[in-house]
Design brief:
Number of strands: 0
Order of helices and strands: HHH
Strand content: under 5%
Oligomer: single chain
């Protein structure tokens, strides 16, 4: 699966609109980071955002409005 910034934005927007629980967002992010194919443009930025979402359920990391 190719993970684009549009896909990441849709996943995050679904969470912010209460359409997806944080646990489901994290569950999506973990395999997307490990097994997802990043596009040639901006792979570092996309993977950094997905990595941040992957640990958002941890108390030490959380997910703030500033992060979003």
């Amino acid at each position: 699966m190719t993970v684009t910034k549009q896909i990441v934005a849709r996943q995050l927007a679904a969470h912010l609109h209460h359409e997806r629980l944080l646990a489901r967002l994290v569950a999506w992010a973990e395999p997307a980071l490990l097994g997802g194919e990043m596009p040639e443009r901006e792979p570092g930025a996309i993977s950094a955002v997905i990595a941040r979402l992957g640990v958002a359920d941890r108390r030490a990391f959380g997910l703030t409005w500033g992060d979003c």
